[in-house]
Amino acid sequence: MTTRKLLAAIALIALPLGTACTAAPQDTAPSPSAPATTTSPEPVSDPTTETPAYADPSSSDFTMKFKIKRKHCFGSAGCNVDVEPDLSYKGILPIDPDKSYEITYQINGDESGPVIETISLTNGTSMEYYPSSLSTASSRTKITGKVTDVAETN
Hints:
By secondary structure, the chain is mostly beta strands. A hairpin with a 3-residue loop joins strand 4 and strand 5.
């Protein structure tokens, strides 16, 4: 057994279990006068140090529907309706969970005109609001709404 093969066999024995080692046979020995060259690995970005990108939400990033929670109609006199907002975020980037927002919206369908309300949004998903009571002119009145303003509160 040659010295090179003996050293290779010793190196394989010294490897920890589960470590793979492959070597291509060399036809000629490296020249002792040839300079050694090494390539350093490409730097790998550490995902834990990158700052996540968050949206600066605007009114156009939200859609608004309403859930009817109670409806009491009086024939031709119209209806009293209690509604709760059903807010959906359609933005591309997530909302920063460390910020709080006031989301102002307009409800259409009340016989006296538009109703303006506000939702407090915290942690990116937690909403606080009050149900709205409306008086409609008819039982067929469609209740609609839209977000009119988004303002950061902290």
